Amino acid sequence: MPKLLRLLGGATVTAILGFILLPALVVTLAAFNSRAILSFPPESWSWRWFVKAIAYDDFQAGVRNGLIVTAWASSIALVVGAAFAFALDRYEFRLKRTLETILLSPLVVPHFTIGLGFLILAAQLGFARGYSVIVACHVVLVLPFVLRSVYISLRNLDPRLELAAASLGASPGRVLITVTLPLLLPGLVSGWLFAAILSFNEFTASLFVTVQRTQTLPVALYNYVREYADPSMAAISVMYIVATATVLTLANAFLGLAKVLNVEHAR
Amino acid sequence: MAPAVLCALGFAAALAAVMQYSLRAYVPGSLEAGGFTLANFAALIRPLYARVFLDTVWICFLTASFTLIVGYPLAYALVHARNVALKSAILVIAVTPLFLGEVVRTYSWIVVLGNNGFLNSMLLKLGLIDAPMQFMFTEFGVITALVHVTLPVMVIMLAAALSHIDRDYERAAASLGAGPIRVFLTVTLPLSTPGIIAGVTTAFAWTFSAFATPQLIGGGRVNMVANLVYQLGFASFNFPFAASLSVAGLILTFAVLALMRAAASPLERIRQH
Asked: ipTM of this predicted complex?
């Protein structure tokens, strides 16, 4: 009986993993198909769609704009989020819960509402729709992830280590730099990584706050899918999937993804 | 501290801007909004818009339910896998889609579900169907893609809850003679309710927020609130009405989340003992 259960469970999990992987595998097949029309399995293979996708102006501009926005947004979110997580963990202050609720709520507030909000706000304050509005919008959107990641590593930190350093005569600043920050490093790095990946991929809110000149890669991709049907899009999807899976596998190897996501057994 | 306050203020100001706009009159042909009015909210009750709201909630509900059903076994396997390599593989496969972005994933599903896409080609080749089946522009297609989109976050939340269950409870039940199914139903499942609630509410909110999937796979035939907001804003430049739809959406989201929390609180109380 337990053996049968195990077998059944294994089959179920395999089927679910198959469901998750299916689109990625299918899109890879489509990307290497030499003809412009989909056919499964492809009759002949080629790299031409990859060449075309890399050479496409809108995609190049999208990557550039995306990197600018991501670099700013994830770095700002890291500093703000880490400082706030620290305050949240260590100190009591007025409006603590309110502030926490507001900063975590972008997790459940629809992205189109946030995008529309920043669009209207920028228009009312007379800002041009440049990078600053997109960056501000992205900081708000990715902040909850940084907050969570840093907060979890703060919780897992053994306070005795800081006490030991302090009792041996280290000043609070020195304790922070030589003990606390190094111990938090995995949490900080993974928080920043999460923020960067999510910002680079953010689409719905970006659609509202970008214009043709500042469009990020997902917006450029969306416009492409609406107008053309050739497999360049499949090619760029494959590059995306490979890059993301590589980053995550490395992150898992070096940072321990399970710990960062808080899905590991406590004991 | 100060930067965090600034971020909170910026976000609050953006939401306030939406609310303020939702109460302004639409001046056709102009981007400026007119005077204050409640007309936008009155217009929401019209059957056309009420229908989109109902459809959206229904799609969100179905998506959240299916995501839970599909996500639970995976989260369970992730937490209980003993082999380290297997565990890492499950984790990376389950989490990667989260970081691929809505557009790439939606496009991939178009390639799978399209009329000469993968699924139809395979079914035709196997002789199971004679003509391509219509998956695109259907609720089925949209929900399949949406389940795929929300699955990673569901798995993360369920796994977080499952991993914090003290294994001794399960061992105790087993040592008292409960079979594996009974242990799961009477110990593991009830103890994982916080994760189920967190997962379902987040899946609901994310689906509500989805735009590219219903837009590209629904192709105008499956409309959700997000699509309507975008259409009103960028096709007819009726920002005040788009804003009032967003506010209504926001209220609805919070109402549903509050309802789920309330429904779950008796369960929480049992768990405390």
From this structure: 0.83
